[in-house]
Design goal:
mainly alpha; Arc Repressor Mutant, subunit A; 8 helices; 2 domains; 183 residues
Length: 183
Amino acid sequence: MKAEGSGHWCEAIYDAKAAELLLYGRALGLSHCEAEDVLQETFVTLLDRPLPPARPEHYCVRSFRNQALNYRRSLWRRLTRELESHRWFEKSPGETAAEQDAMRCLAELPMEQREVIVLKFWHQYTFEEIAELLDASPHTVAGRYRYGLQKIKNRLEGIVYEKAEPLPEWHVPLAAAPAGGAA
């Protein structure tokens, strides 16, 4: 029997990982509500285990991923997700335009790249840990990460170029400038 005040082994995992797992669920294409449902199902399953696995956090993230992928397979949920996809991240009132642009760019990435970026940044996993989680090689994971970041960078630079400062009044377009030899 457990000592008074001590909780189930997965309570600490929940406290440490719940918010990260919700974001990960969003990266996997779930709505916020779907991610919460998958989180609940994951921890209901974990609560059925009397003893922790050898690597509890890894097991938790892997279990969440499997639950999320199974959840996404349902046709009804797929249709709901497609209708809701325009709200990939809920906007918060204090978001800057740059944060909104970055979230939009992240949402537009292929799921494989988005998934690796979320696991690397928010979960602070190594490429080896992500590779083990996804059943892929560390080189494949690193490539997805690198290509995903490059796509985000290119899109954000494109946004910056489109919002360039207006030209000064003294600027004369080349077509309007007098020819060099006419004096």
